[in-house]
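When time allows, look over one protein, given below as sequence and tokens. The question is which stretches look regular and which look disordered:
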Amino acid sequence: MGIKRILVSQPKPDNEKSPYFDLAKRYGLELDFFPFIKVENVTVKEFRFNKIEILDHSAVIFTSKTAIDHFFRLCGELRVIIPDELKYFCTSESIAFYLQKYIVYRKRKIFHGNKSMEDMTKILLKHKNETYLLPLSDVHKENIPALLDKLHLTYTKFVLYRTVVADMKDVVKNIKDYDMLAFYTPMGIKSLKQNFPDFVQKETIIAAFGEATAEAVEKEGFRLDIAPSPQNPSMTMAIEAFIENRKNN
């Protein structure tokens, strides 16, 4: 069976240089982008119930751009004026640069790792006397607070936003029309099951990014066909390798 239509469970890329568009052009693919999950705000009332004072902290750790958006949204709703002295620690350079949306970047103390919290170990240890604020989604990896515990840092963890299943029934008319489904989160797999309870995989190819997503695919009884590897670390590279392998066999 040839691969013609792929459903990617993410928003459509804003950048025309996305490798997905290159992949589509190279192999004549039809791509649809529909997020299978959505993010819900934690309300001011919910936040206040935790009795957390943002201004009692000297630093904040951001693990995603979504966390940045919701942090500044919440501060605005709380009418909290963030002091210039607040330090920002981000798990990657791209997340750190995203702060420019809300603050004057060059006038703030901003630190970042490469891609993970583990990269931040040396940086955090240099600032071990800070009182950290750690805003997260309700669905998050426990390795993040575990690292902070290991480093004996003082921090406050709280849920800033929730990741929930999106209603896909009016967006995707027939899931069986797609030759391949590409997922990036375990919640996306849960959304597939919830939105399309009658879906049977058969010849449909399922691609999963990340170990947790791959585990969710198999846990739900589906066949995992594509997953990034050291040789093909991105989703698009893994998909291309799969297509090429199928062409040659």
